[in-house]
Design brief:
By secondary structure, the protein is α+β, with helices and mostly antiparallel strands. It folds into 2 domains: 63 residues, Winged helix-like DNA-binding domain superfamily/Winged helix DNA-binding domain (Arc Repressor Mutant, subunit A, Orthogonal Bundle); 164 residues. It is built from 8 helices and 9 strands. The strands form 3 sheets. A 4-stranded mixed β-sheet has the order 8-7-5-9. α1 crosses α2. The longest helix is centred in the middle third of the chain and has 20 residues. The radius of gyration is 18 Å and the shape is globular.
């Protein structure tokens, strides 16, 4: 369930994300629906069916088989994550920005060993509707010329936003990334550590005065920002 994610997905997305063929992806989708982990998202009216995880599916995705990590390591990984948030928000390459970051799960406990760091983000467009649409089209056309293939209209539509998600995640096994729309957040304790509408940021689990500049206001060089897109 972690590899499928907690957003809106299609059978094609599941096949690609799990490196499975379409036949296997369809069977898996049917099985997840039958067992109550996925359901059809009727908000989408396209011919291609779009699915979203249920509350039961979201709960399952929180389970982790990864080796437990020390709290100091979790703090370090969260620090690195917030550095990527800063890059996304300050780098004009990205067409969406992170408006809010929320932590939840075992990171808010007093445990010294954690399975992972559960983080939820709210992502919003950087520009007004017309300008955002124009820039999105430019981006997908640009990457299309470089060889990126979009198997569905939705893949093309959400590509600029998924660029942000993928970069924030950066294949980290420690960061379990969610969206703030995830229903699981209504069932657990949460803490907002970044909100671009707030005057002050709160960084739980760390010495705020010592880590404020590193965690909440981390700045990366232009060379680093460019290298991660190379």
């Amino acid at each position: 369930m972690r590899k499928i994610g907690d957003g809106n997905v299609s059978v094609e997305f599941i096949a690609e994300n799990l490196n499975a063929g379409m036949v296997n992806a369809k069977r898996l989708t049917e099985k997840l629906i039958h067992e109550g982990y996925l359901e059809i998202n009727h908000q989408f009216s396209s011919k291609e069916k779009i699915y979203c995880t249920t509350l039961q599916g979201n709960s399952l995705s929180l389970a982790s088989a990864a080796k437990p990590i020390k709290r100091d390591t979790a703090d370090k990984k969260l620090l690195e994550f917030m550095g990527r948030v800063n890059i996304v928000n300050s780098d004009n390459y990205y067409l969406y920005k992170v408006k809010k970051v929320v932590v939840f799960g075992s990171y808010l406990s007093k445990k010294e060993r954690l399975n992972d760091v559960d983080v939820a983000v709210e992502i919003v467009p950087k520009y007004d509707n017309d300008e955002q649409f124009r820039r999105n089209e430019e981006r997908v056309n640009e990457v299309g010329k470089k060889g990126t293939y979009f198997s569905t209209f939705l893949d093309r539509l959400f590509f600029p936003e998924l660029e942000v998600i993928k970069y924030l995640k950066s294949r980290s096994r420690t960061i379990s990334l969610h969206r703030t729309e995830d229903p699981i957040l209504e069932q657990v304790e949460t803490k907002t550590i970044y909100d671009d509408s707030a005057e002050h940021q709160n960084c739980p689990g760390l010495n705020i005065q010592q880590n404020e500049d590193r965690l909440c206001r981390t700045h990366a060089s232009t060379a680093t920002a460019k290298s991660r897109r190379a």
